[in-house]
Amino acid sequence: MSQLQLDSVYVRSQFPAFSEPALADKAFFENAGGSYACGPVIDRLTRFYRERKVQPYAPYEAGRLGGEEMDEARQRLAAMMGIAKDELSFGPSTTANTYVLAQAFRRYLKPGEAIVVTDQDHEANSGPWRRLGEEGVEVREWKIDPATGHLDPARLAPLLADGKVRLVAFPHCSNVVAEINPVAEIVAIAHAAGAATCVDGVSYAPHGIPDVGALGTDIYLFSAYKVYGPHQGIMAIRRDLGMRLPNQGHWFNGEVLYKRFTPAGPDHAQIAASAGMADYFDALHAHHFLRAEPDPRVRGQQVHDLIRAHEVALIQPLLDYLAARNDLRLIGPRDADRRAPTVAVALDRRAEPVSAALAAHGINCWAGDFYAVRPLTAMGVDLDKGVLRLSATHYTTADEVARLIAALDKVL
C-alpha cells in the first residue's frame, strides 16, 4: 500500500494568499518568520470584528457568541495538543509569554538554585532566563557542538548532577540549526534530576502541532502566526507547576490557570480566530483520510505525520544541492529526516544582498541573524554577513524548491 500523499492543490486552496495576483508568481521561503494565514482564521477574525467585537461573555447574543468562540479555540487546540483546556494560555507573543514566565520563576526560585539554558535558542527562550542571573539565580549553559550546532543530551546530565537545577529551557528545534531535538528524552533526564522543562516550539509547531502530553514537558510555547494563525503566543503549562508559580495576572483571577500568566487583557478577536487553526487541521484530516477520527489528539498526530512526510521529501533536494557547493556552509543536518525545513546557510559574502537578488527571481526570503545571535556566534558565523535563510512549510511545492535551486545557481 502506497504512503498517503499530501494534496498540495487542496492545501494551497485553503490559503487566500495564493489567489492574490501580486503573490501569484512569488515562491515564499520566509515561513520561519511567519506563515501565510489560512482561510478559516481570516474568516473567523473578520466575523469577530464584524459581529462580535464587544465584551465577550456578556449576557447578550454578541457577547455570548464571542466568549463561546474564545472558549472553543482554547478547547480544540488543547485537545489536539493532549493537554487540559485550562493548561493552554494565550498571550501577545511567545517572547512576551516567556518574559512573564521568567518573572514568575524569579519569585519562585530559592537562593542557591539554578537553571539551565542553551546556546542553540532563539533569544526569546534564552534572554529572559539568563537575566535571572542578575537576581542571584545561577545560570548554567548547555552548549552546542560548534561545528554542527548539535545539542547533545549527554552534555546535559553533568549540569544537573548536584540537584540544584529547577528548570531546563531548550528548543524543540532552533530557527537556524533546525535539528529536531529529542524532547521526550531530554524531559526525562531533567525530571529525573528534579528539574522542570520549558520547550520553545516556535520553529517546530508549523510543521505539525506536537502532542505536548506525550512529550511530557512542563511548559511548551509556540507562535500562532507561524502556524497559519493570528499574531498570538500560545503556551501550554502543566497545572501543578502553573499553580505553584506566583500569579502574574490580576489577584482575583489567581485561581484560574490560564489567567495566571496573562497580566494584560487578552486580544479577544485573535483568540477567537485561533479556532480557525483547528478548523484548518481538521479540514486537512477530512480531505486526506477516508475514516473519520473522533479523537482530536489522534487527528492532530495523523496530520502532523502527513505534513512531516511531505516536508522531508520536499526539502531533501535543496539540502543535497547546498551540501554539494563549496562556497557556502550549510547549518545543521544534511538529512531532512533530522530537521525542520528551515535551512540557513553562511555565505562567503553578506547574505542580505543575496536575498534581495533572489527576490528579483521571484524567491521571497531574507537574511540576517534572526535573533539567533548565540548559536550563530557559537558556530563561528560572521554576524556582519549573517546567514541566508530559506524556510519552507507544507504548502511549499516541489516546483517552488526547483525554482529556488535554479535562482540560487544564478545568484551565487
From TrEMBL:
Q: Identify the Pfam families for this entry.
A: Aminotran_5 (PF00266)
Q: Which Gene Ontology MF annotations are present?
A: transaminase activity
Q: Keywords, A to Z?
A: Aminotransferase, Pyridoxal phosphate, Transferase
Domain Aminotransferase class V, first and last residues per copy: 28-245, 307-404
What SUPFAM superfamilies is this protein classified in?
Answer: PLP-dependent transferases
Report what the protein is called.
Answer: Aminotransferase class V-fold PLP-dependent enzyme
Q: Which species does this protein come from?
A: Albidovulum sediminis
